[in-house]
């Protein structure tokens, strides 16, 4: 990924987060939305990480 592509993607994330925060009317709502955004990012990151270490034959039913 080039630096330009990275910056474009990060800008998309910034704009999306800003739009989400527009729905908040209080600081507490901003905090809840921030937690929800963080949860989604951590979930997507966990999937991406597991794909990078997945065995060539895939995971067995027990996740090994």
State the helix count. 2
Q: How many separate domains make up the residues?
A: 1
What percent of residues are in strands? under 5%
Flag low-confidence runs.
Answer: none
Element pattern in H and E: HH
How far the N terminus sits from the C terminus, by CA atoms, comes to 30 Å
Radius of gyration (Å): 17 Å
Q: Which assembly state applies to the chains in this document? A: single chain
Main sheet attributes: strand count, strand direction, barrel closure: none
Give the CA-based shape.
flat
Helix content: over 70%
Short summary:
This protein has 64 residues and is mostly helical. It has 2 helices and no strands.
Structural features:
64 residues, mainly alpha, 72% helix, flat
Task: Record the SSE blueprint.
Blueprint (H helix, E strand, L loop, with lengths): L2 H19 L5 H27 L11
What does it look like?
- Helix content is 72%, strand content 0%.
- The protein is flat.
- With 64 residues, it is mostly helical.
- It is built from 2 helices and no strands.
- It has one domain.
